[in-house]
Specification:
Oligomer: single chain
Largest sheet: 5 strands, parallel
Helix content: under 10%
Length: about 290
């Protein structure tokens, strides 16, 4: 079998129903299908093409995990839920596009370890990017994040080593722990004025990140958040009270830092191994 046609009248493709089938190269889903069960096409490694039915609303956990031959995905706005790990380890996938959809939820690790994914267009209407959505998508260069997104999960873009362009939505309040860790081709990033916190190791290992402007709304920056980056000069936000441990550790290009007057504590090793650091403006309040 090369083409699998799900017959009309089918409402659900059962969990594990086609697991490990190597003979399926093309999938055509009938318009009556509403749900694809968990692991339904798990490791169907020769599956190259999917034609979605008009009424599919749920893609279950790991439904297409390890479908190595999938090259591109165009997900219709009928889909309301993409389960955790749904397309994890789809190593042939290069392009993902969602139609606009204000009801869609994309679960944790949905596209994790898609090691050849280059472009991703998330739908206008999406509200949350959950943890590890694009974890270790090492070829991902560009991702469209709509203005409707209000939160990004931990390690959402961890080890997206080729990422060179990302625009963060204006309503974002938090960049969580390790969100962009080891995005080592990211040259610059504009942080929105809505932001209030930056998590632990959020930008650690972004070696080419040479410029970043932190808005004065930010009052918390986690341990090692900018360690091992290429930042040359930085002004910390006026609302900041504490500079955490190892914040700029091994920032080998860092030359100057302006510390606001409200800072009362600087953690151990905050500027350790910053060999080019020439100017640090310290307020009298620091203990």
């Amino acid at each position: 079998m090369k083409i699998l046609k799900i017959k009309e009248g089918t409402k659900k493709i059962d969990s594990y129903q086609y697991k490990d089938r190597k003979d399926i190269e093309e999938l055509i889903i009938a318009d009556t299908v509403e749900e694809i069960g968990e692991c339904a096409f798990f490791r169907c490694s020769n599956l190259k093409k999917i034609t979605w039915g008009k009424h599919v609303h749920t893609i279950g956990y790991s439904a297409f995990f390890g479908c190595l031959s999938l090259n591109s995905l165009h997900l219709p706005n009928s889909i309301k839920y993409v389960g955790s790990c749904a397309f994890e380890f789809c190593n042939g996938l290069t392009y993902v596009e969602f139609e606009d959809n204000d009801e869609v939820v994309i679960g944790n690790s949905a596209f994790a370890y898609c090691s050849r994914l280059i472009y991703a267009i998330l739908p206008i209407g999406l509200k949350h990017i959950y943890a590890e959505t694009f974890y270790a998508c090492s070829k991902l260069e560009d991702v469209f994040i709509p203005e409707t997104v209000t939160s990004i999960g931990e390690r959402a873009f961890y080890r997206c080593e080729a990422l060179v362009s990302v625009s963060l939505p204006s309503s974002l309040k938090t960049i969580p722990d390790e969100a962009f860790r080891y995005c080592d081709h990211l040259p610059t990033l504009q942080l929105p004025n809505s932001l209030i916190s930056i998590g632990t190791y959020a930008f650690n290992g972004c070696y080419r990140l040479s410029s970043i402007e932190i808005p004065n709304t930010v009052n918390t920056i986690g341990l090692g958040a900018f360690s091992q980056t290429g930042i040359v000069s930085i002004t910390l936000p006026s609302s900041l009270k504490t500079i955490e441990k190892s914040l700029f550790n091994f920032c080998l290009s860092l030359e100057s830092v302006t510390i606001p007057s409200g800072v009362t504590k600087i953690g151990d090793g905050a500027f350790a191994n910053c060999k080019r650091l020439k100017a640090v403006s310290l307020p009298s309040t620091v203990v």
